[in-house]
Amino acid sequence: MNPSIPSPSDHCDFPNRRRLLRWMGALPLFLWLTGPLANANTNRDLVAQYPWLQAWVEQDGLDREWLNALLSPLKVDQRVIDLMNSQAEAKPYYLYRPIFINDQRIRRGRRQMRNHAPLFANVEQHYQVPARFVAALWGMESDFGDYHDGFNILRSLFTLATAYPRRASFFQSQLRHLLLLAREEGWNPATLKGSFAGAMGQCQMIPETMRRYLVDFDGDGHRDPFRSVPDVVGSIANFLQQNGWRRDGLYSLPLADDGGMESLSKQWQKQWRTIDDWRRNDLPFPPSTPQLDPNESASLIRLVHASGPGFYLVFNNFKVITNWNRSSHFAMAVGELAARIQPG
User: Fold this and answer.
1) How confident is the model over 142-162, as pLDDT tens digits?
2) Cα dihedral across residues 307, 313, 317, 323: positive or negative
3) Residue 312 in contact with residue 332, Cβ under 8 Å?
4) Does 225 reside within a domain?
5) Rounded to whole angstroms, how far apart are CA atoms 171 and 206?
6) Neighbours of 147 (CB within 10 A)
7) End-to-end alpha carbon distance in the chain
8) What is the pTM assigned to this prediction?
9) Measuring CA to CA, which of 97, 134, 194, 258 is 20 to 30 A from 37?
């Protein structure tokens, strides 16, 4: 799904007026970065300092002077590192859940699904993904477009690429994808705002994911995750479809606790087994359990509620959501929000 990476010369061939206007809008930035003023800001040869930057010059055709001028003024943002070490997913589920599952967000979700009913119907038909899950992800990530983190994406990713050793290689890759995405879409990378971890737009996709799954669903000739609701919800649905969403697939199933669930969850944590295998292990399915395909794969997860631990079987579509965000807390909250905002 990755779009081809254009060479710098590709931007001299303008197939339509829109691209020309977008390029002209970026012209002052280009002139600043490549003209005499660039020398005043390029105090360090970062390309020489970081070999991975040199690789981008050689492999992706990014201009060396442009990279130095763009990145040299950046300083490490300690707030970014502090936030990386204290993320909400580390909370127990009963503290994490109210952040996203609350009356205000549920009301906003229902209102957005009503206001954009034709759009959601179109997206659901096109991608074969239930609209309520698309809307729930939109709500989880940006409160339906109402919340935008104010971090400078370029500075955040540069900070994590150079001063967060535990995941430096991952964020170096995201910084590269940001610069390539900005080149492809005609964006000014120095002005983009988003989360402390580099996610952008109303769908809060990281740059690599955005390059792969962002779509022009409103058909206006460019992909806009910041202002275009059709592009946002279409891109979310595209991600889910491409990652294996099953139209009528199962999501999660709460289990009874007969006293043996703690040992079972420790024994089989993060392993995927068939329903038939789980039954052979005497998993306590509740009486109201629907008919399940014995060959359906499922995994056992444990969440901490205020009243104690809760145990759930989760299925393929739950796993697809964890491809978006690896946290089981996040995926469970998406399922709950989707159920609550479903139009009656």
Assistant:
1) 999 987 778 999 999 999 999
2) positive
3) yes
4) no
5) 10
6) 11
7) 35
8) 0.85
9) 194
| pLDDT tens per residue across span 58-85 | 999 999 999 999 999 999 999 999 999 8
Task: Over range 167-184, report the average pLDDT.
Answer: 97
Residue 251 one-letter amino acid: Y
Instruction: Give the number of domains in the chain.
Output: 2
CB under 8 A, 24+ apart: contacts of 256-263? 256/284, 256/285, 256/286, 257/284, 257/309, 257/310, 257/311, 258/284, 260/284, 261/302, 261/309, 261/311, 262/302, 262/309
Q: Is it the case that residue 141 has pLDDT exceeding 60?
A: yes
Phi-psi region of 58 (alpha: psi -120 to 50; beta: other; left: phi over 0): alpha
Boundaries of domain holding 310: 252-314
User: What was the pLDDT predicted at 343?
Assistant: 78
In this structure, is residue 269 part of a structural domain?
yes
Q: pLDDT (tens digit, 9 = 90+) per residue, 87-134?
A: 766 789 999 999 999 999 999 999 999 999 999 999 999 999 999 999
Contacting residues for 27 by C-beta, under 8 A, at least 6 apart: none
For residue 37, the 8-state DSSP code is: H
Q: Which of 24, 45, 73 is the last residue of a domain?
A: 73
Asked if residue 163 is part of any domain, the answer here is: no
CA dihedral 226, 228, 232, 233 (to 10 degrees): 160
Query: Are 111 and 135 a contacting pair, CB within 8 Å?
Result: no
Confidence (pLDDT) at 17:
39
pLDDT at 295 over 90: yes
Is residue 202 assigned to a domain?
no
Instruction: Choose one of 73, 98, 122: the last residue of a domain.
Output: 73
Phi and psi at residue 320, to the nearest 5°: -60, -40
